[in-house]
Amino acid sequence: MNRQMRYIYKRLVKGYIRNFGMVDESEFRFYFSPGRINLIGEHIDYNGGHVFPAAIEIGTYGLITKRNDSKVRAISLNFEKFGVSEGDLNNIVKQENRFWLDYIMGVAHVMKENGFDVSTGFNLVLFGNIPNSSGLSSSASIEVLTAMIISDLNNLKLEDEKGRIEISKMTQYAENHFVGVNCGIMDQFAIAMGKKDHAIFLDTATLEYEYVPFDLKDYTIVIISTNKKRALIKSKYGERRQQCEDVVKTINELGIVKCETLGELNEEHLDLIRPHLDDIHFRRARHAITENLRTIKAKKALIEGNLLEVGKLLNESHLSLRDDYEVTGLELDTIFDVASTFDGCIGARMTGAGFGGCAIAIVHQDQVDEFATYVGEKYKEIVGYECSFYLSKAGDGAYRVL
User: By the 8 A CB rule, do 260 and 204 touch?
Assistant: First the structure.
């Protein structure tokens, strides 16, 4: 364990003793599950296109002890005032106002439905250093963490490549059908399958993937949180997804193009479908189609070391998300506009679902502090409150620490 992880481990042990009582330290099992950023390819994972995420080195930490019954008792040190939440693996039901425990119980439920032994209960203490409502996938981080814990406790052996892909599918299904967020596969896949110093070029239609060295040379990724709270269930995320599905249905019914997702189409198809769609649906389709193509170009540019091209594609991505998909807003657009005027920044865009959350910027490593000061001051002046800055390298997927 590195220094930070040792500090968090000790904090979790103290939290465990405070909430569950003393145990022999040999009974503890300690896990980490990362968050993720998406370099480019936004609102594409449910459109059957390509995405380009990376696991990051901040995320969710879990300390557990095994129980002799089927109960799950859990507390988050981020929300300790809410106390211990409890569920039963033999009687999993969704409950109102149970806060974040549904992410855990939903994963257990789906794993049981898929035929896995999920009989061993546990006490769990969580701590996350992913900013709340940041769009860096704190929910998927908890879900994948839960799947790894259940696999370990029940000796399911899902830690290899095949097992991690299965975990990606099951945890996505849990978020879709138990929690109620109709997300795509990208978040869970990146968190389960992350590889240190690499991004993942993922075809969300087939789940074929390629690890690409995440080498930015003299530049680094800066994560900028808007500090604006958002809730995907209540946002227009579902509306955007439905609009894209409506486009696919329309063009298939009219016989213009035969496809299952917008990710199968290219820019030539835009001219064919334009006369048959209203302005809103056409713009939604244009974003999905062009963003998929930008992601393919970004992978090629990163491999070739053409960082200026990568930055250009990030800028184009944000403009498309702003103008065609309309998922940015004042906070994210302010970060983009201000970052774009900083000489040491070669590209920036929102990342995640939007409507708040985070942006990313590619900034020269010698100018990060200057960048943070410049963007931070301008952001507060325009928006009225502060944004936050984070640095993180691409890291490994979820794993047991000890």
Answer: no
